[in-house]
Amino acid sequence: MSELLSTQQIDQFKTRLAALEHPRELVVDLLLAVQENHGWVPDRGVELVAGMLGLTPLEVEEIATFYDKIYRRPVGRYPIHICDSVCCWSRGGEAIAAHLQQVLGIGMGETTADGLFTLLPTCCLGGCGRAPAIMVGRRFYGPLQTADVDRILAELRREATS
Ligand code: FES
Question: How far apart, in whole angstroms, are the C-alpha atoms of residue 110 and residue 112?
Fold first, then answer.
């Protein structure tokens, strides 16, 4: 994986930081930038963000671990967030979760051997009208049937090899 933040990104964040009253406003943006570059946020990413903002690593860690779309452990290229909140659950979310585990051959929290997919449970994705739903990275999919899951996985595999 590449460097955590490029020199250009650091300069851009410093410019934004200078215009802010509260450095904490940039924590999530910085963590997401690190994650975009590195695939996940290692300890040294937390320390880098803390140093840039004048915060302690613990203060950054508290925010990093609050958001389940910020990964503090390595994940696959396509982290799949499976909604397990009530609307998705009542409209077949469990079957979608079971199907994903079966076709990928992994359990929740695990990553496929090819490094492509990680399955993660998540609370409501804010798209209840399209339940059952998943998010792959920042892409939202729903309403889903198992055939849709197969199509999405095939598309992502094609994307990964193109
Ligand atoms: S309950 Fe699944 S998106 Fe809201």
Answer: 7
State the pLDDT at residue 57: 98
Mutate to test the pocket of ligand 1, among 82, 84, 85, 140 (most ligand atoms within 8 A of CB): 85
Which two three-digit tokens encode residue 106? 């992994």
pTM for the model: 0.90
Q: What amino acid is encoded at 100 in this protein?
A: L
pLDDT at residue 134, as a whole number:
98
Closest approach atom of ligand 1 to CA 86: 1
Q: Which residues of the chain have pLDDT under 50?
A: 1
| Whole-number pLDDT of residue 2 | 52
Residues with a CB atom less than 6 Å from ligand 1 = 83, 85-88, 124-125, 127-128, 131, 133
The single-letter DSSP state of residue 66 is: T
Contact 132, 143 (CB under 8 A): yes
C-alpha 82 – ligand 1 centre gap (Å): 9
- Kindly list the structural domains of the chain, giving each domain's residue range(s) and its CATH number in brackets, ordered by start: 7-64 (1.10.10), 78-161 (3.40.30.10)
